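Researcher: Next sequence.
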Amino acid sequence: MNKRKVLYILFIAILIVLANISVYYYLYFDNLRKNVKYTTELAFNQKSSVTYNIETNDNSFYNSKNLNDYDINKVNKIDVFYNYVLTLDKKVSGDYTYYVRGVIFDSDEEKKEIYKSEENKNEFDNKNVININNLTNIDLKNIINTNTDIASMINAHIKYELVVNYHVYNKELNKYISNSKTIEIDIPITSGEKIVASPSEEKGFKEYANVIDNNNNTNLVICMEFLGSIILYILCIAYLIERISPKARIDSEELEYILSSYKKFIIDINFLPDLSRMNVSFVENMDELVNYSKKYKVPIDYIEVIENKEYVFAVIYENDAYVYKVSVKRRK
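Model: Next structure:
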């Protein structure tokens, strides 16, 4: 076995060893990085309130913030104002929906849904506030008149509720969060009691997630340095092989001259047509081939038939082919 072959085998063996070491350390450090986690949080602050105005049969008006004594049996209409605000300490994307529904109850038993508004859906991106304001008009007198079965109930009351649903995503937590909130007003019918609304409320809560510390690049830097060493080693091997290779560099001066001087006549083709069925004539130089190209008004086809060694230029017209071959010389 000659020295050159031994050197090639040694280079390849070292390269395989280094590649395996590189893969091992990359997997080791990448797994180490994935285990470096920290806990992050998303804080929610939720506010809700319900206010209402009352109109009685004698055209008296009452406000929920300043109620005087009123007779529930004389209430004609109620205007209900719902407000819901959700504030987050980080930007999120997603959607939220809300609607209002009215339901007749007998004590705690739901009897009949008498109203449901159209569901209002809103999508948003990179925001941290949801603010909902809704005004609902309740024609209490008309409801009682059209739902005669209320009179037969032991403890009839009507609830009008605002139902809010939201579904948001936070990139830092890499987590989807869904929640809902219901705000209501409860209107007694047969008990003679007063209207009861959900109390104004402010509530805070948090969502947590364990995330990978993607900003910790120490392990990645180590892997990249090792990979850089492998690449440098490969380049050194390639240089050494090129220096000790018995193959000589291609002396392609004639080919380069032809391609630059006659480029307007030449087209590069991927395969050479079958010349065995044609009348083939070999010309002495490119000038002759150019004359045939001009004569028949066809381009000169160009193809490399033997890699880095032999090139063919041809003018093909009908059943005739005029060929000029360039054989590249090598020098050692």
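Model: The chain has three domains: 3-36+214-244, 39-212, 251-330. The longest strand covers residues 75-106.
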